[in-house]
């Protein structure tokens, strides 16, 4: 045989879906950020950290609920600079996973860098070596997506395991106690390095659904994980022109994705972000997938929008209702890149959180605007995929420039908005609703950065009355790097 | 058996037979698992389909050398990989991303796929050549 075949079989068919290779490092954002910081103090939110680990006891003001017991895991890009260089996009930084532990009315904080392949190699070299989402660096060869896995977007406790998640490759398993990195999670050998998004949806019974977009071969990966953490099914769907897809929603019967209209320019030497060309004249596709057999049942269209995040979705007769934070176009991606080099856009990119009704019989999409200038929509864990009455979001601080400034609850029946703004010296992070163990409503819990004192504070609100301000605040003696997303595990 | 381990003698005898030898230093091996398999292609049409020369070397952490012998003088592109589990194929995942270390001459890389023959093209004169490839 065929001795010659062993190489060609493997090499000819393979290699179809690697991330692009990139040329030399791009612009030096390091100095520009420092100059910008002097003009815009809110940019301190993008300072990141050089530390491997942070740990501290929080001092409590107000009365932290005794019954609020558990661990709030969060994740975000924390290592943004190395060797005098700074990434050109916030999404590029290496992930740091945070654990806020709450028990007996006390709160402690532990955060550790996720020791990915990329992080270990770059730490050893004390130099940025690999391309990021928005930075074209090619000092080391990239083998597959996990070569550049930054594990920087969310943290999820599931079936006794803790995962740090990116969206272009594998989840990374961590020790839930110490946050030490255990390694890449591979559910099956042929699923190695397969994209596993940072926004898996966990139903009330523990069933986990996730997606992964593979633009190189126009495939969408659908993941179905059992409540015990074992793989149930994985399915590939062909999706033409698939590009950046960050999040999705599930109902009891369906998986729903919105596909912002991009085309991919595969020019060599540019970042993955730079490959994305906005196609505003094209429709945004809405994919409706049947959970029972993981097949595509409906493709609907709506006007072009950019979207990162969804709140929730539920089946409503022949319709599906879902909430999502929408942007007119992809400028928000450029706005975040500008902030990394110290530039704050005068006019922030407008976002709106809307409820979409997908009429599956008529093939139509209707949009009802819920709240302008909002992001990071969340619902209570017990309502994932079920009809929800309230949606929680962050609200922008329009007066004071970039970053979020407050929290809001949107009552979907009647549209009442309950909100709290922290004021100009605060940058607010994602807040998540947590069910009270006595069944009497929800708390809303999340961090905010106190810019004046350079300290991070964990807030707890009565979710039924945000306007009265936090019930209690747990203040760290330091500023923790800003995170994107996280999830609570009760004890 | 056409697959040859690297022996200096082969280098010498091959030279005498008026065919060129290509010596390839493979860097970046993270482990000594399995073998490094190498192939030479002489045209864009046959690239990654029909090799004109192959070789193999036992893996060892760090770097290894291998020789593809008896090449006619001309242009080639080299592909190679570390067959860690010794199943004689470059393992890949469900969508075709390689999951074992691999590389190409000139350390060429493609965009969402393998590089072209042109990107990986090297010249091998009658006197032979030496190149270095870093596994990715």
From TrEMBL, chain A:
InterPro entries xref list: Carotenoid_Oase
Organism of derivation: Chitinimonas viridis
Transmembrane annotation, as ranges: none
Family: Belongs to the carotenoid oxygenase family.
Name of the featured protein: Carotenoid oxygenase family protein
Domain of life (superkingdom): Bacteria
UniProt keywords, alphabetically: Iron, Metal-binding, Oxidoreductase, Signal
A Pfam family hit: RPE65
Signal peptide: 1-25
Cofactor(s) needed: Fe(2+)
Oxidoreductase as UniProt keyword: yes
TrEMBL record, chain B:
InterPro entries in UniProt: DUF2141 (IPR018673)
Keywords: Signal
Domain of life: Bacteria
Pfam families cross-referenced by the UniProt entry: DUF2141 (PF09912)
UniProt signal peptide: 1-19
Stated name of the protein: DUF2141 domain-containing protein
């Amino acid at each position: 045989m065929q001795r010659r075949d062993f190489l060609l079989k493997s090499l000819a068919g393979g290699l179809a879906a690697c991330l692009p290779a990139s040329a030399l490092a791009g612009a030096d954002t390091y100095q520009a950020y420092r100059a910008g910081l002097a003009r815009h103090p809110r940019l301190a939110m993008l300072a990141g950290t050089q530390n491997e680990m942070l740990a501290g006891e929080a001092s409590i003001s107000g009365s932290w609920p005794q019954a609020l017991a558990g661990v709030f895991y969060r994740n975000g890009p924390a290592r943004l600079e190395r060797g005098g260089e700074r990434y050109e996009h916030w999404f590029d930084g290496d992930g740091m996973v945070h654990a806020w532990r709450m028990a007996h009315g006390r709160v402690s904080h532990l955060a550790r860098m996720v020791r990915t392949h990329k992080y270990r190699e770059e730490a050893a070299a004390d130099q940025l070596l690999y391309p990021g989402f928005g930075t074209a660096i090619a000092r080391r060869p990239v083998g597959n997506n996990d070569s550049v896995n930054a594990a920087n977007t969310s943290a999820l406790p599931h079936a006794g395991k803790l995962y740090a998640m990116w969206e272009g490759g594998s989840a990374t398993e961590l020790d839930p106690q110490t946050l030490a990195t255990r390694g890449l999670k591979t559910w099956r050998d042929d699923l190695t390095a397969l994209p596993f998004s940072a926004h898996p949806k966990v139903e009330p019974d523990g069933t986990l659904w996730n997606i992964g977009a593979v633009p190189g071969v126009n495939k969408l990966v659908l993941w179905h994980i059992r409540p015990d953490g074992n793989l149930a099914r994985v399915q590939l769907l062909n999706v033409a022109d698939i590009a950046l897809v960050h999040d999705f929603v599930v109902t009891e019967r369906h998986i729903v994705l919105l596909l912002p209209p991009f085309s991919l320019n595969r020019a060599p030497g540019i970042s993955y972000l730079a490959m994305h060309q906005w196609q505003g004249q094209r429709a945004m596709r809405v994919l409706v997938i049947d959970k029972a057999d993981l097949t595509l049942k409906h493709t609907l269209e709506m006007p072009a929008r950019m979207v990162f995040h969804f709140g929730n979705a539920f089946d409503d007769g022949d319709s599906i209702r879902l909430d999502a934070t929408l942007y007119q176009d992809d400028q928000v991606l450029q706005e975040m890149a500008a902030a990394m080099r110290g530039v704050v856009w005068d006019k922030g990119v407008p976002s709106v959180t809307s409820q979409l009704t997908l009429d599956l019989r008529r093939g139509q999409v209707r949009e009802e605007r819920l709240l302008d200038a909002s992001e990071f929509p969340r619902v209570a864990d017990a309502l994932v995929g079920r009809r929800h009455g309230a949606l929680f979001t962050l609200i922008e601080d329009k007066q004071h420039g970039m970053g979020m400034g407050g929290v809001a609850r949107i009552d979907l029946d009647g549209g009442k908005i309950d909100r709290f703004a922290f004021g100009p010296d605060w940058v607010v992070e994602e807040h998540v609703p947590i069910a009270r163990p006595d069944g009497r409503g929800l708390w809303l819990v999340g961090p905010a950065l106190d810019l004046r004192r350079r300290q991070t504070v964990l807030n707890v609100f009565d979710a039924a009355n945000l306007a009265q301000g936090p019930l209690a605040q747990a203040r760290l003696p330091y500023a923790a790097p800003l995170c994107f997303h996280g999830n609570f595990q009760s004890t | 058996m056409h697959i040859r381990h690297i022996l200096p003698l082969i280098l010498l005898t091959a030279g005498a037979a008026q065919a060129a030898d290509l010596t390839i230093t493979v860097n970046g091996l993270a482990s000594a698992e399995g073998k490094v398999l190498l192939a030479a292609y002489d045209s864009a049409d046959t690239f990654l389909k029909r090799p004109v020369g192959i070789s193999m070397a036992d893996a060892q952490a760090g770097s290894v050398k291998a020789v593809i012998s008896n090449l006619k003088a001309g242009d080639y592109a080299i592909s190679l990989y570390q067959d860690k589990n010794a199943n004689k194929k470059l393992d890949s995942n469900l969508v075709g991303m390689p999951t074992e270390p691999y590389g190409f001459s000139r350390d060429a890389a493609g965009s969402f796929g393998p590089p072209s023959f042109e990107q990986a093209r090297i010249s091998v004169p009658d006197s032979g050549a030496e190149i270095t490839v870093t596994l990715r």
